[in-house]
Automatic annotation (TrEMBL), chain A:
This is Beta-Casp domain-containing protein. Residues 364-491 form the Beta-Casp domain. It comes from Buddleja alternifolia. GO terms for biological process: snRNA 3'-end processing. Keywords: Cytoplasm, Nucleus. The keyword Cytoplasm applies. Its main location: cytoplasm.
Automatic annotation (TrEMBL), chain B:
Residues 15-232 form the Metallo-beta-lactamase domain. One of its GO terms (molecular function) is RNA endonuclease activity. It comes from the Eukaryota. This is Cleavage and polyadenylation specificity factor subunit 3-II. InterPro entries: Beta_Casp (IPR022712), INTS11-like_MBL-fold (IPR041897), MBL (IPR050698), Metallo-B-lactamas (IPR001279), RibonucZ/Hydroxyglut_hydro (IPR036866), RMMBL (IPR011108). GO terms for biological process: snRNA processing. It comes from Buddleja alternifolia. Belongs to the metallo-beta-lactamase superfamily. RNA-metabolizing metallo-beta-lactamase-like family. INTS11 subfamily. It is found in: Nucleus. Pfam families: Beta-Casp, Lactamase_B_6, RMMBL.
Amino acid sequence: MELTCLSEGKGFYFPPCHIMDICGFRVLFDCPMDLSSLAIFSPLPVDANAISNDENISGSCHKYADLELNEDKGQKIDKPLDANSLICAEPQYKTITNLLLWNVSFIDVVLISRPMGMLGLPFLTRNKDFIAKVYVTEAAAKIGQLMMEDLVVMHEEFRQFYGPDARKWMNWEEIELLPLELRQIVFGADGTEFGGWVSLYSAADVKACMLKVDSLKYAEEACYNGTLILKAFSSGLDIGTCNWSITSPKGSIAYISNSIFSSATAMSCNYEALQRTDVIVYSDFSSSDAANKFDDDNNCPGAAGNNFSNLSDDDVNSKARTTLLDADEYLEEMAKLDFICSCSMDCINSGGSVLIPIGRLGIVLQLLERFALCLASENAKVPIFVISSVAEELMAFTNIIPEWFCEQWQDRLYSGQPLFSHKEMLKDGRLYLFPAIHSLELLTIWQEPCFVFCPHWSLRLGPVTHLLRRWCGDPNSLLVVEEGVDVNLALLPFKPMAIKVLQCSFLSGMKLQKSQQLLKILQPRHVLFPEKLRQHISPLETSFSFDYYSENKTIHISNPKEDSELDIEVELARRLQYTTLKQKDINILRLKGELVVERGRYRLSLGNEQVMSSQTRPMLHIGGVYSNDLLMALQKMGMKATVEEITGVGGSDNASIIHVLEPSKAVIEVREAQTLISNGDENVATLISQAVYSLLDCV
Amino acid sequence: MDIECLVLGAGQEVGKSCVVVTINGKRIMFDCGMHMGYLDHQRYPDFSMISKSGEFTDSLTCIIITHFHLDHIGALPYFTEVCGYNGPIYMTYPTKALAPLMLEDYRKVMVDRRGEEEQFSSEHIVKCMKKVTAVDLKQTIQVDEDLQIRAYYAGHVLGAAMFYAKVGDAAIVYTGDYNMTPDRHLGAAQIDRLQLDVVITESTYATTYRDSKYAKEREFLKAVHKCVAGGGKVLIPTFALGRAQELCMLLDDYWERMNLKVPIYFSAGLTIQANMYYKIFINWTSKKVKDTYATRNAFDFKNVCSFDRSMINAPGPCVLFATPGMISGGFSLEVFRQWAPHEGNLVMLPGFHIKISISCCLCSKTPTQIRLDQDVFIDVRCQIHQLSFSPHTDAKGIMDLVKFLSPKHVVLVHGEKPKMAALKEKIQSELGIKCYYPANNENLCIPSTHHVKAVASDAFLQSCLCPNFKFLETSSEQDSELAITHNIAMPQLQVYDDRVCEGVLTLQRDQNPKVVNHNELMSALGIKTHEVKLAQCCEVSREFPDYRHEHIYSNMPPLLLKGKMPSQNTSHTVNSCCTSSMAGEELAAKTTTARWKLGGGFELELRFEYEIGGGAERGEMEARWWVFWDEVVLVEDGGQPVVWGLEVAGGGKGDDGT
């Protein structure tokens, strides 16, 4: 087995990407793209003035260019970062550069762990060499598809504005002129990522991509090539997200992506299903994203590790389980949502509007519900708008997938309530879904203050840019953004701003402390852990070993199982007859049958009699022949013989030669692994060979 | 070990489905239904058969419920809350959501309207449902370390599932009720091809063959339309769930097309809530219905409103869906009493009814009077129309499923005895599968699959997976003959890939049996093999034709060319030494290895097989180079130069030399 980490990703919206060699099959985990790098582009200008501004920008570029020309021998001066330094062009998208180093046709399986993990998939699938099977959970596939379709629609706006010439900005001179911050995004931290920029796929690409996707339920078994059994188990991060379990004849592997144990919306992480796998690929980088939290975490695990050494296994497990499932995280998350809700209500009450460009479906559903409750309790008639080309479909979809939600929401269903109050809210005009900001209906209904949920969280695409431009000067309005986005850069084009900005971080994985407890419960044999997080976990006294991986390095893991399991059908086994070897305490027999590979298991069945008997290998003789024994055996048969010992050069080629004199002449050459009977008379040869066989085990 | 099927209900009858299956020590109860036709103890399965002491939690591993019909789930609250079973219960999400509605409705009918003693309370239902684990289709659930279960789409009602259960190497499928043809709102049953020991299948329509549903649907719509056009009222007594939604979709669609304004009513409460669940669980319906969810949920009926008791005698035409389906009591009976005496009205009867219900009396003949109670009679003057489409599979469907799954045994339940007997004969004769139809409380033992566990080395598996292609060319004569008789074009070339796996199985104390390749014995297990060869010596004088020299030399590896070459056109006297590797006595005679030592520093050995008797010309030959620094050995059969397919090890493969 081999693991290569192609990208460690960054935050909720940019999952890690790995490629793994399992039993000779190449499995790609997730195929994301880095949408945060959209920040280098300028959002679309709203009005004609902006276009004249645009000219100013190019003008200013020239100015800087002149400036640089003048000082070409001196130090290069970085342009200061301001709204004008953003690139005014149709955006390009940054994919996983390291993935480009791999031949697409060598990928056998693609496993997607969350909707964000499939945003880069059409780039792969539109390659004509792409032949891999793609597995995604049903819910993630649908949500991912909607996200991609929405992205294409939002991008279309740019295409209409700038015309067809897409790669204009990728001009070396112009990029050289960009401020350092932007250049870093363009080239990546180590300057190698320039090749990863590509033009966006089309709607047709998305459609073709979805045709290549096999969607699964949680815990549904998918079988690849009869050998790999793939199963998705809920990870709790968001609706449809999953961890993967892969069973091969050479051992089992669990791929753990960002996981949440007591999830507020989605079905919680099903870690029990991953117990006792041989290898765990730990790929939850969320704790490294929240770097400042290391100090808090650092103290705990070490102490916890010591505590456990005195306890029995059961105690450790039950204790670990309580740590995993403690309600703190859940309550914290609820408190955050309540806080957002109360801030929003304050803002509404003071006459401002609330703009929420958050891309997490779970959070959006939670907030929608809370807003509705708050509004009802205050008896306020403030509309909630969800503006996106896929809003309607997404809302309808969330209403019909109760199987993918957490227990609390499912219980609501069993007690006879609808899953969401969307339907009612839509009916009595508290909630409106619109495909675009310029739809006529929206303009007639529009009313402020209001709540607006709309894409895109990068603040570069979609309805959010227009609404933010509208409200950025309003000190009563509120913008809710997520932590992890470079807010300074994101808000750059909208400055100066008077709008209030609420930045909040949502739970997007497990804390390091929990990850250690998790590993304890799972009891794998071997763990592949990010090098990045190594320093933050204390070495554990555990039965399993660790390997640490880092970006773009391949690590080899020996197969957990050397031999594969084989089922022999009883009908076949009944016919077998054992021979007990003379030389060792081993029973041995010849096995013949038809091999069936089915759902990752090998089975040997009786097979077609006719075919079976048509092919026979020669007898196998086991043991050694000693000349004295043979002589005795020959004499018993009434033959007369003499022995002659021959020593080869260096004693390596020893042989005994037995001359048979009666009944007819024959020579038997006995070596360590071979006996050669030279004789003209067939009958005598047969007798001699019988004597030889009597000294050997025949199989 | 055997698989035991203890049939507690639905054995040679329809009603109270309940089968307890024991596989490798795990005991699963499939369905826990009640019989709607009995009011005494016979309505429940005889649970004492499971455990005399009443320790049900310990004696069952889990309960699996296939769908929400009362004859499959009706006894569950009684079993869990009154009998005290406390173990795991599995059913699909829609079943978990809809079952309490059914149970509560039934309880109300029993207690509130008929005034019977209640078998379980509302609270019991709630508590019972709390113990249920909901499952999704195809989800593989590990009940415990050994027992694995999985649900497959059954298409009978919303959320109906067939269940697969596997313990060790033994596996079974319990179908529950299913439908092999898609209907208006549900898809057809779907299952993987599985390795099964037993399939326990329903056989409601064991001998019936049904044709297309569309004609039946048209007939139904026409009858309803005719009635309302004449100002009559239509009563459709149905189960609240399933049939009601299907018919409603039909009517709603028809109303839309024909622009009818006659109201369609649902008897309040239950069905309204049921519709909500249908909307949420639209993913469990047919693909056609499912795909509409984004634009308009197909269960958002446009022309349907809820009904009030006061409207029973309101003037004007209407269509009313009322529960229960058998007119055995409750609201449908109340409405029936009022509407039946009027000629213009219409009563739609469900397809399947239990013998003692009114609906059965109505269909068997056309009565003018029905005796309801001791002294209550109803004059029946309205029209009676029988609904003949059913969500059960017909005989063809059962045969198709059994054939598709090809289990080793089939058990029939949920049907009528004579029809089951007929189906059993059919399955045994047509499919060659053993078939049983046990009666209630009968315990059936069936042998189960068991594999011997071993480990296999990579080399063995690889050798097994190597293709072994054989090409057979059919002669044109045969071809034409076959083409005439069978009227099919036979392929010119047929390719066979018969792979025979051969290996050696070794058994050591305290170790799993291990299977290895022949060549591995030494390296993997330290077992020494010994080769026994026979040799014959004779002297042969032979002149080698030129072409063969050229042939052989041209295939020599470059290394050999460095040595001294025997000059061409020379006559050599060589010692021939024929050895044969032995594989039993007969083969020894056929296999010959011949070597010729030639001057010039090289030895060549050929091994080949030939037949000693008549056909001496045919044989196969395999050649190998041995390089010695002082001689070359060339090989031929003892005198007869029959060289077929000369293969040079280390060189390439040569053509034959004749």
